[in-house]
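Record type: monomer structure entry
Structure origin: computed from sequence
Chain ID: A
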Amino acid sequence: MTIVLTILHVIVSLLLIGVVLLQSGKGAEMGASFGSSGSQSVFGAGGGTSFLSKLTTSAAVIFMLTSLTLAYLSGQPSSSSMMSGKGKSAPVQAPVSQKEGTATTPVAPVAPTVPAAPVQKK
């Protein structure tokens, strides 16, 4: 599920980038007055701006929904076998003193010391 949403998210983000780059800027109308063929576009005289703006809006909505869904799914606990608790070991308990009945602090084992080799005099 997450992989499909991630792939859809990447595709929609690339589509959104492309659609935004295809849109003409606010100063593009100035070029039409100097002989640019603004009315002979693929989408018609004024249809290009409305089509691209609708496509931008829909791509942005899909992008936001996939972003929110991926964020929600990343916050959920994982259902993998490693994280489900099947492989957990029993907790380590501190040794109990038989005399007092209280827990003692565990002491790290000490490695045996090896005597150094005697230094020979010449």
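Annotation 1: Residues 2-23+43-75 form one domain.
Annotation 2: The two ends are 78 Å apart (CA to CA).
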